[in-house]
Specification:
mainly alpha; two-stranded antiparallel ribbon; 21 helices; 2 strands
């Protein structure tokens, strides 16, 4: 197991080199400039679409705009915002948060392009059902000679959307906050507890995902907004007590982003790489998984779904991740602590709210991690359907449920390295296809607002 862990750590480090950072961040900057900042100027219209003003149940697709966004957000909100931010601070220092913000700012434009393409180039699977996602964008938009690129995304997506990280961190926080203090298990010997809890999680996941994407959409449309509001209320409660430390936390983030003083050797490159890596894990802009959710939206207008999708990085990274980072930095628990991942975040909340903070965070982690697991099943099944045929993708339900158990007993470094490496591979076909097809998105955008002049006049 140790040799596998070392191999996966080396693999993730190799994939997440500076070329991938340039592709993700540089590509996002290109989309930002190429779109002439259009996505940033139409948030009001995006919210109107999200509220159902333009919904038409007769349009092709499986779920409405709001459910598409909440399904996509359920795949990003959760461990990336809670455990991922803690990992970023531990491994890259406070300055890594600044580079997470950068991925979100340029990610707004990236998501506008990738989600628009997910609708524009939906394709039929082997059963004739309409599907969306980067593999179909490559096949339908670039042609069959680019199929190896589509296959790369589907292969990496099959492993990158495994539930192992979410389950691992959920089991970890329940074990450390609830089970060990109550004597249900011990720090030295908790394999049996982890496996039992993993089996219970697997049973809940199976009950939901057997209902297909429609049930996932219904569950996430209720769960995600409630949990986001709950988490924001919880962090505001914490930060109210540490309000005086907030300006210093922001100053530390900005200073460390360009000095790397909190990282061994003062390596600014490490800060940037870790920030972009964790930012991509948090908001998935340019990774492509969220395009599979947006590709299932009921609409004939690709640009509408692109406008809806761009809200994701704002909610996910600029708001929720910032709240987590401030809670960790203002309470000071990140200094000299051996805790990592979700345990560090739990320490911050327990430090601010003794006796209740860690328990409240555990409740929220439970629901957000489950919502992520539900969405990741959908992504993985679509990748398997593309590779092996849609008539076989139903078998993934049982494989996925079994992998929940693996995540429950695996080490944090092993599972996060596996997911990181696969996320990096997924970004290559997603960003490549989006960059090549960007002129078609810009043309479709001009056509959309030419046909809807009222929206353009009202919003510009």
């Amino acid at each position: 197991m140790e040799s596998l862990e070392n191999a996966l750590v080396a693999f993730a480090g190799f994939v997440w080199g500076m070329p991938l950072v340039v592709l993700l961040v540089g590509g996002g900057v290109f989309f930002l400039l190429y779109s002439r900042l259009l996505p940033y100027r139409h948030f009001r219209h995006a919210i109107a679409i999200l509220r159902g003003r333009y919904d038409d149940t007769g349009d092709p697709g499986h779920i409405v705009h709001f459910q598409a966004l909440t399904t996509a957000l359920s795949g990003t909100l959760g461990m990336g915002n809670i455990a991922g931010v803690a990992v970023a601070i531990t491994m890259g220092g406070p300055g890594a948060i600044f580079w997470m913000w950068i991925t979100a700012v340029v990610g707004i434009a990236t998501k506008f392009f990738t989600a628009s393409l997910a609708i524009m180039y939906r394709g039929r699977d082997s059963l004739g059902h309409l599907q969306g996602g980067p593999m179909y964008v490559v096949r339908e938009g670039l042609g069959r000679r680019w199929l190896p690129l589509a296959g790369l995304f589907a292969f990496a997506g099959l492993f990158g959307t495994l539930p192992v990280f979410q389950v691992n961190q959920l089991v970890q926080i329940v074990r450390e906050v609830v089970a060990i203090p109550n004597g249900w298990t011990s720090e030295a010997d908790h394999f049996g507890f982890d496996l039992t809890l993993g089996a219970l999680i697997a049973a809940v996941v199976l009950a939901v995902i057997l209902g297909n994407i429609q049930r996932v959409g219904r569950v996430t449309s209720r769960l995600v907004p409630a949990m986001v509001l709950f988490y924001l209320a919880l962090t505001v409660w914490v930060l109210f007590d540490y309000a005086g430390a907030i300006p210093g936390a922001f100053a530390l983030i900005l200073e460390d982003a360009f000095s790397g003083q909190s990282v061994a050797g003062g390596a600014v490159g490490t800060v940037i790489l870790m920030g972009v890596r964790r930012g991509a894990f948090s908001n998935e802009a340019g990774i492509g998984t969220e395009s599979m959710a947006h590709g299932a939206a009921k609409t004939n207008e690709p640009i509408r779904e692109g406008l809806v999708a761009m809200l994701g990085p704002v909610i996910d990274t600029l708001i929720v991740c910032t709240c987590t980072a401030l809670a960790i930095l203002t309470t000071g628990v990140w200094q000299g602590s051996e805790a990592n991942g979700v345990s560090l975040t739990a320490s911050a909340f327990e430090h601010a709210l003794p006796g209740t903070g860690a328990y409240l965070l555990t409740i929220m982690v439970l629901f957000l991690s489950l919502s992520t697991i539900f969405s990741f099943w959908y992504y993985g099944s679509k990748c398997l359907g593309f590779l092996a045929g849609a008539q076989r993708q139903h078998h993934y339900v049982w494989i996925y449920t079994g992998l929940v158990l693996l995540g429950a007993v695996g080490s944090l470094e092993l599972v996060i390295s596996l997911i990181d490496g696969m996320y990096g591979l997924m970004a290559i076909p997603t960003m490549t296809s989006a960059l090549l097809l960007a002129p078609r998105v810009r043309a479709a955008t001009a056509d959309y607002f030419a046909r809807h002049p009222r929206e353009r006049r009202a919003l510009d």
